[in-house]
Amino acid sequence: MLLPREVRISARGDWKAVSEGLRRWSDRVTVVAGPRLVLHAHGLSARAADLRVLLRANPGASPVRLRAWVDGREAWTGSVPVSPQSLTFAVPPAARGLDVLLEADSAAPPARPRLVVDTIALRFDASPSFHVARLLPPLCGALACAMLWTRGRRWKALGWSILVALLAAAAVAQALEPAAWLRFDPATRDLMRVALLGVVWALALAEPPSKALTAAVITTTVVLIYAPTLGFGLLSDDFLWARPWTARELLGAFAGTEDPLGRTTGTYRPIADLTRALDHALWGVRAEGAHLTNVVLMAAASLLAWALGLRLRLGPRASLALAVAWVSHPLSVASVAWVSQRTDTLAAIFYLGALVVFLFPGRFGRGRGTAVVLLALLALASKEMAVTLPLAAWLADRVAQPSTDRDRRRVVLRVLVLLVVAYVALWAGLFPEKMLRGETQRGAWYGFDVRHPGDWLRLLPLLYATIFLPAGYEHWSRTALREWPVAHLAAGLVVAPLVLWAARRFGPLESARAAVLGLVWPLVVIGPILGARPDLYRLGLLPALAFALALGAVVMILERPHVVGRDPKPFPSGAVGLLPSVAVALLAVLLVPITIDTIRAWRPDGFFAARAIEWSRRHEDWQASLTPESRALFLAQVEHQEHAQRLLADGHSP
């Protein structure tokens, strides 16, 4: 089904992705076009043969005379009947795409639709590899079933085999022919992703997962959520970094600004420069490669979040729930969807890595202490938010309470504090104007009045509401501080205390400690700069861990039989085992759609990306600061994203 010979895009499919000038008619079902229509398909596989459109004249505009142009050449002319007529346009060899301009002439009023489009179809030639690829999903499903059949419950083996076959089919379709997904409208595709994630999480948490299964589930989650970002292109500062880097520049980044060429005010982030240089060495200026690096980094950070859960004694199921909740939180999106925002992911990798090593339950020798300090140095060299690491390590130590080498751990904490003091002094010496002026990002804080006490009182409730009751980036960004309902702010404040109460009342001691850490975590990692009103959806990766900690505590509560009053009333063992699965399935249904909506903000037509591209086009001085290669890349990307709109507006002169 996902690898057909012909991909038919009807009114129920994603026709907007392959057209400009189409719109829904008044019946909200039929798709119609005016005097001009552009059909465009790009990035097709080498097997792409032709594009076919099934259309007819609107009876209210008949007679309609149509002229078709393919890549600037006239390909067809004639009258269009009111009955369906098929037009076929060949895809040029090796072009992997084409642009078709249809110009419809009619004596009807200009506002009246000229054409009714029933189907847009892409046809592909068959090949031996195509037929082999069709066999891979059922083979993967059968292999999974055979491996699991004798190891556990047969219903679980059947469930995993079906799921593996579906995931393999989706992966094969995405790798060989992404256009196959255009048969489904975006809402249907999003529903598929939510359903797959819900089933994957529920099956994984039905029983305590193994390490291999945990790693597979986390990786699958990252791919299902963030795979669309591979086609998003570059934004703003991304073009500054998409260039070759010399060894001198990289060494200079450790002693000064992250931009050795001085084109930005800069910050101290040399580790990010190393990844940018690696990107250019591996991928050149291809945006897909840079986005792939972001996805891989997010997967690594999520695995460390799972390891942190184990260090906090949350157990295998709760730790897995923590990791998938963190990676699927809307505040985690920017660090993957925007290439330049990978600084958050890099900082999180070393930040969490330092905590995982620091909380090692066994003997804490000099080697582990040195590793914590080195990881802290790398975190500080990735982003400024790592200055909160000593406090986070102290709190995590109070929660996990490792029993060995307490004195040596205290020494390491003191070293971390001294390291942060030295870092702040270095930062102040490099960027004194930033230290004096401060950095304020507008975000959802516009309308904030420093003289209004009520605005200051709203900061903390909105911080917790954004983490525990996220609303999506566009809504968050366009809602003024005083426009947020008081009920929403109050609800966001009580979620974490409510989880803490439930953990103390019904859960084990570890769940209560995790709930405490989740309650104070936002104050630790972003509280010190809350007065500067940061954009939480761009700096929210580490704060989002508070939500994940709270969910981990909830899963631990659900894992054990409850005691109500004085009479023990445990759930049946089977029901207790399914409660964590139900919790994460609800998480997929309620949270992932908001995350998917947030990802769209960084899509080329998303509100944040559109705003960034418009700013880049207006500021010629910014374009002049780019290297010739980066400037050509910027202009080529804009042309690729806007060529269909330009063709629709300008038409074609023979």
What gross morphology would you assign?
A: globular
- Counting DSSP E segments of at least 2 residues, the number of strands comes to 11
The averaged pLDDT comes out at 86
Major sheet size, sense and barrel closure: 9 strands, antiparallel
Task: Output the radius of gyration.
Answer: 27 Å
User: Can you tell me the residue ranges where pLDDT is under 50 for at least 5 consecutive residues?
Assistant: 563-574
What number of domains? Answer: 4
Instruction: Count up the helices.
Output: 24
Multimeric state of these chains? Answer: single chain
Percent range of helical residues: 55-70%
CA-to-CA gap between the ends?
A: 41 Å
As a percent range, the share of strand residues is 5-15%
Structural class: alpha+beta
